[in-house]
Design a protein that fits this description.
single chain; alpha+beta; 6-stranded antiparallel barrel; 3-stranded antiparallel sheet; 4 helices; 10 strands; elongated
Length: about 190
C-alpha cells in the first residue's frame, strides 16, 4: 500500500477511529486510481524470485531450490507476473504481504486465490514517498461532502471558484492531481 492507515489519518488530521473502516476500504481503490492515472505500477524490475510457485489458500509457496532466488527482502507490496503468454494467469497481480517465511508468503487478499501451480516472478513494488500526500488527500476528498460534486469541471460562486481534474474517469481537485504528474509514465 502507498501509505499505512496511521499515515493517512495523521495527514488528514483524524485522531479517532470513526473513519478507519471507510479509509481502509478506500485505500486499495485510490491506489488503483493513482497507478492507472500514472500509467505506472511502480514495480521494482529487479525480481526477488523467479521459478515455481504454488498458490494455496491465502498465500504463495515457492521453491527456493528450484527457483532463481535473489536475496532481496519482499516488502509490503509485491507483483506476481510471468513473461510466458501460455501460462495460466489466474492469480497474477498485486498483493500485500502480511508475513513471509523462507518458503511461503501469506497475502492479504481482497478476492479469492485460486489453487494453482505455475512459473512466475515475484517483484517488489516500490511506491515513492512523495505519493503519500496525494494518496491521503484523495482519500480525504473521497470521504468529504465535496465528493458528491464529482462530474463538475468547474464551479463559481461570487468570489469563490473551484476546478476539478479528470483522473481516469474519477474526479479529484486539480491541485491533488497536479502532485501526481511527476510520477506519470508515458
Amino acid at each position: 500500500m502507498i501509505a499505512t492507515l496511521a499515515e493517512v489519518k495523521n495527514l488528514l488530521g483524524y485522531t479517532d477511529d470513526t473513519k478507519d473502516a471507510m479509509i481502509t476500504e478506500l485505500m486499495p481503490i485510490v491506489q488503483n486510481h493513482i497507478t492507472t492515472y500514472c500509467n505506472n505500477n511502480f514495480v521494482n524490475r529487479t525480481f526477488s524470485y523467479k521459478g515455481a510457485l504454488t498458490f494455496v489458500n491465502d498465500g504463495i509457496v515457492y521453491d527456493v531450490i528450484q527457483g532463481d532466488f535473489v536475496d532481496l527482502p519482499f516488502q509490503n507490496d509485491i507483483h506476481v507476473s510471468t513473461s510466458e503468454l501460455d501460462m495460466p494467469q489466474l492469480n497474477f497481480g498485486f498483493y500485500t504481504v502480511t508475513s513471509k517465511t523462507d518458503t511461503e508468503i501469506t497475502l492479504d487478499t481482497i478476492g479469492a486465490i485460486y489453487n494453482e501451480e505455475t512459473t512466475a516472478r515475484i517483484m517488489n513494488v516500490d511506491y515513492p514517498v512523495g505519493l503519500i500526500l496525494p494518496f491521503s488527500l484523495m482519500i480525504g476528498y473521497s470521504i468529504s461532502e465535496n465528493a458528491g460534486t464529482m462530474g463538475i469541471s468547474s464551479e463559481s460562486k461570487l468570489d469563490y471558484s473551484v476546478g476539478y481534474a479528470d483522473l481516469s474517469g474519477y474526479m479529484y481537485p486539480a491541485r491533488i492531481v497536479e502532485m501526481l504528474k511527476m510520477y506519470r509514465s508515458v
